[in-house]
Specification:
Length: 245
């Protein structure tokens, strides 16, 4: 992408759209891509004081290897600058960080046949974030794209207290829990969520970069498991979508 050209685009919404179209979003399907992301995670979480130092200088957990996870890296001029992972959970595939921490709230929804989109592990390079304020918006967009692709019923953001305002403002999320301890992190986490059909048009109106094409959704999330989840969801009664951040 041409990072210099982006600075000449007027208006933040226009800059978001231009940035999102230009940045290189890659699904991390190889071991090398994932290792690079795990090291970016480590640096980001260590910088925030969310984790203690470790000898390997990488941060990962077992949920990075579940069947129902998609991990993404965003690159500028070939350099990894941010990452996010997205779990898509159903009764058949219940693995998800939020479901582990908030099972009393979410398991009844899975048992009722709902689809849960749970984006987590959003991290960004500090220098790139300062240079490109659009970066966070382009990264968390992938939860919105997942909710569109999977026709999700429940979308989530599990965040620290100081980050709640951002997710409320961008995705119109509402508080679903009190803070709880979260795996491998020092600070407690609160779960937020929103009903997608209710807010989708308003979010897209305010943030046009959230839109995606069928081809983009298929490129990012397509595969045998995605087709299986979508086929099952299409037979669910009253299936409605909810966006995750």
């Amino acid at each position: 992408m041409n990072s210099v050209a982006l600075r000449s685009v007027p208006g933040f919404a226009d800059r978001l759209l231009s940035f999102t179209r230009a940045v290189d979003v890659r699904r991390a399907d190889t071991d090398a891509d994932r290792e690079e992301i795990f090291r970016l995670r480590y640096e980001a979480y260590l910088r925030e004081g969310a984790i203690p130092p470790n000898f390997n200088r990488r941060f990962s957990d077992r949920l990075d290897t579940t069947e129902n996870v998609w991990i993404f890296g965003l690159r500028i001029d070939g350099t990894l600058v941010s990452s996010i992972r997205v779990h898509v959970a159903t009764e058949e595939y219940p693995d998800s960080p939020a479901i582990e921490v908030f099972p009393d709230i979410l398991m009844p929804a899975l048992k009722a046949g709902k689809v849960v989109v749970d984006p987590t592990r959003f991290v960004a390079d500090a220098e790139a974030s300062r240079a490109h304020p659009e970066l966070s918006y382009a990264t968390v967009r992938l939860g919105f794209v997942a909710s569109e692709y999977f026709n999700a019923d429940i979308g989530l953001a599990t965040v620290r207290s100081e980050h709640q305002a951002y997710y409320r403002r961008v995705f119109m999320l509402e508080k679903m829990s009190e803070p709880r301890s979260y795996p491998d992190l020092k600070q407690p986490i609160t779960m937020l969520g929103v009903h997608y059909p209710t807010v989708r048009e308003e979010i897209v109106r305010r943030f046009p970069h959230m839109r995606s094409t069928p081809a983009e959704r298929e490129r990012l999330f397509g595969g045998p498991l995605a087709r299986h989840i979508n086929a099952r969801a299409s037979h669910a009664v009253g299936g409605q979508a909810v966006v995750g951040a």
